[in-house]
Amino acid sequence: MNYLTSLTNSLLQVDIQKIWEFMPVVLSNIQVKDIFDIVVVAFFIYLIFLFIKQTRSFSVLFGTFLLFILYYLSVVFNLVLTRQFFQQIVTFLLVIFIIVFQREIRRFFQWSFASRGPIYNQLRLEQTSTEISEPIVTVAMEMAHKRIGAIMVLTGDYPLGDLMEGGFALDGMVSVPILLSIFDSNSPGHDGAVILEDGLIKRYGVHLPLAENFKGITKVGTRHRAAAGITERTDALAIVVSEERGEVSIMEDGQMTVINDRDKLFEIVKKFLKENIDEPKSFWSYFFAKNFLEKVFAILLAIVLWFSFAFQTGVVNQDFSIPVEYQFLSNNYVISDTSTKEIKVTLAGSNKDFNTATDESVKVVVDLKDRTDGTYKIPIGEENILHPSYFNFVDVNPKYVWVTVKNSQ
User: Fold this and answer.
1) Could you tell me the domains of the chain?
2) Closest Cα to residue 49, out of 299, 237, 251, 276?
3) pLDDT tens digits, residue range 1-17?
C-alpha cells in the first residue's frame, strides 16, 4: 500500500513537473486570438450542456462524445477513410439532430429570448415561497385524506411550452379554495393538471405527456405517468395525489417518491419555490448565475480541444502537386497546348492543419480572359494560388506556364 502511494505521488510529481516545464512553451505561442477562440468554443459547449440538461437528452451527450473520440483517433492515427467518412456525414448528422429534436430546440430558443417584466420581481416580494407552499401542501394532504386525485406542477427554470395541451387559462392567486374547487369532480378540468408558475395558477385542466421510461412504483395510473412525463423532460416538480391509495407523491427528474409527512412535503415545496420564484427566471440570469460545474467543464473541454486541434509550437512546410485550372477563356477558343499540367505549391502551416488538408483544398488558377490566337508565357505567383486561410504561401514551381490558344472554328 505504501509502495502504491509512493508510486502515485512520484507520477503526479513527474506530470506536474512536465506540465510546469511545458508552460513557457505554451505561453510563448498563445495569442489573443487563441484565447478568444477558446472562449467562443466554451460558450457553445456550455449552451450544448444547458440544452442537454434542460431537455434531459443525455443520450445525445454520449453519442456526441463517442463521435468526437472516433474522429480524434482518426486524426491522431491518420485513419484517412475514417476521417473522410466523418467529414462527409457531419452535415447529415446535424440535419438528423435538428429533425429529431426540433421541438426541444424550438422551446430552448423560445426560453433563451423570452423576457420577463418587473411585475414578477414585485410579485416575488409580495408572495414568499412560504406563503405559496402552505396552500399547496394543505390541498395535497386534504385531497389525499379524501382520496381525490390531483396533479399540481410547479415550473422550474425551463418553460413547459409545447409540452402542455388543452386546459384553461387562469392566472389566479394560489389559495386553498381555488385549488379545491379546481379538483372538485364537478369542475370541467378536474382530471387535468394545475400549472403553477411565478406564484400564480397559470392553467388548469392541462394534459401532460406520458413518461417514456417510467420505472417507478408498480400499479400506478395515468396521473403518475403524466407527472413523470413532464418532469423527465423539464426541471419541473410535480405533486401527485392518488385517489386509490390516498398517498401524496412528488415527481422530479422522472422519479417518484411517496411523501405522506406534511412537514417534509412542505420543506420540499418551499425549497423548490424559493429557487424558482424568488429569483429572476430569465434565460440569461440562469445562464450567468447558475451551473458553475457546467461552466468549468465547458472551459476545460474547450482548452482540451484547443490543445488537441489548434495548438502548435512551430510551422512546417508541405508541398502539393496541383493541376492547373484555366478559366474565363472566350467562347470559340480552346487550349491546344500547354507546357505544364501540374504546379508544385509549397505552403506553411501546422502539422495538425496539414493532416486534415487535401489536394482539393488547394487550387492553381490561371486567368485566360481576352486571350485569342497565340502562345502566351503566363507567370504563376501567389495571386494564382487558392488555399485555406490558415496556410501561408511559400513558393511555387515552375513560376510560369506556356499556353497556346487557338480558335476552334
Assistant:
1) 2-112+286-309 (no CATH), 119-281 (3.40.1700.10), 316-407 (2.170.120.30)
2) 299
3) 444 455 345 434 444 45
What is the reported pTM? Answer: 0.49
Q: Which of 399, 394, 324, 395 is nearest to 364 (CA)?
A: 324
**Amino acid occupying residue 316:** V
b/e map of 352-361 (b: 16 or more CB within 10 Å)? bbeeebeeee
**Span 359-381, average pLDDT:** 87
Q: Say if residue 238's pLDDT is above 90.
A: yes
Q: Mind listing the pLDDT tens digit for each residue in 312-362?
A: 656 778 888 888 898 888 888 888 888 788 899 998 877 667 766 776 788
Cell numbers standing for residue 349: 502551416
Give the count of beta carbons closer than 10 Å to the beta carbon of residue 183.
Answer: 23
| Cα–Cα dist 133/126, whole Å | 14
* pLDDT over threshold 80, residue 309: no
| Integer Cα distance of 243 and 144 in angstroms | 7
Q: How far apart are CA 43 and CA 49, in angstroms?
A: 10
Rounded-to-10 torsion of CA 296, 297, 299, 300: 110
* Mode of pairing for the β-strands spanning 385-386 and 374-379: unpaired
Average pLDDT of the residues of the chain: 77
Residue 301 has pLDDT above 80, yes or no: yes
Q: What mean pLDDT is predicted for residues 240-256?
A: 88
Could you read off the pLDDT of 116-145 as tens digits, one per residue?
A: 444 344 444 344 567 888 999 999 999 999
